[in-house]
Each structure stands twice: as structure tokens, then as C-alpha cells.
């Protein structure tokens, strides 16, 4: 019967050694396959999956390029009498042109004046004044005459438009302001502000008789 260990004294037991476990590797089968392929590399005729293909000869791979035709020299026409005649004709035309130009410069002043008289006269440009957009009988600031006097007399008949205004026949700033006031009060929009045009004339004459 075993006795109990004494206190303070280590218990003596056999030491357990580790057990080594060997497992087959998956790479062993792959290495075996490579070994078989290396051994059978010289004998490829009996190996399934490959077939021998004959390589083409060097003559079959070489193609002959087409031949380039030789470049023929360009034939120039011989220098005969025909070419000389063309050059002489061109020189004669050039000399005639220079002679005519020199004669034109040497003409006297009288001949030049007579040549200028034969040219047709150009009609002068039209200097007619542009049509007035407010009408042909339009009066504006700066105008004078009996028509301005008639305008002043008619405006004096309209209450508070041209009260005690002058009737001297001059279209001044005071008269222009009176015309503008009349246009504003009675809603006349066909003429410029302060300009006595056709629309303002018809309205003023209808109100003053």
C-alpha cells in the first residue's frame, strides 16, 4: 500500500515525454506527379494529351517580295525653233506694254484734261432734310414766325397752361414748357415732349376752335 507523501517534499512521478505525430503532406502527391512528368519527358509519343507537330521549313516561311519596276527617265523636249518663237513672242508683248505705259506718262496736261472731260459727271448726293417724325408742320424750340404766334395765342385760352405768356412769335423755353404741360394734362403722346407736332396741333385746335 502506498504511503502518503511527507509534507514539504516533492512528489516523485515519471516524466512524460511528448509524442511526435507524423501526418502525410499534401505536397507529396504533387511532387510525385512532377517526378513522373520529368521521367517521361523524353518519350512524348506514348504520353496522352500531346501530339507531335512538324515545324515548317525555312523556305516555306520566307516570302519573295514583288519586284519594283525601274524608274524611267523623263524625256525633255528638245530646244527647237518652236520654243524660241514662244520666248520671242512673250518678250514682244512685254515690250509693247512698257512702251504704252511710258507714252501715257509723257502725255501733255492738255490731253489729260480733255480725257478727264470725257468722263461722265457724278450727280451730287441728295441733301434733302430728313422727314420730321412729328409731322411736316412741326414747331420746336428755336422756331419763329406767325405760326408760333398762333400757337401762343391758342395756349393762352387754355386755363393755367400759358397764363400771361408772350405772343412775340418766338418759340423759347417758356413756350416749350407750356406745350409740354398741355401734352401732359390732356394725355397727348404722339409727339415729343415740348414739341408742337400734328397730334398736339389737332388737339389744341379742337379745344380752341
From TrEMBL:
Keywords assigned: Membrane, Transmembrane, Transmembrane helix
Top-level taxon in the UniProt lineage: Bacteria
Transmembrane portions of the chain: 86-107
Peptidoglycan binding-like domain location: 144-202
Family matches, as Pfam families: PG_binding_1
Residue ranges, compositional bias (Pro residues): 121-132
First and last residue of the signal peptide: none
Record field: compositional bias (Acidic residues): 39-48
InterPro entries (UniProt xref): Peptidoglycan-bd-like (IPR002477), PGBD-like_sf (IPR036365), PGBDSf (IPR036366)
Region feature Disordered, mapped onto this chain: 38-83, 120-152
This protein's name: Peptidoglycan-binding protein
Native source organism of the sequence: Streptomyces phaeoluteigriseus
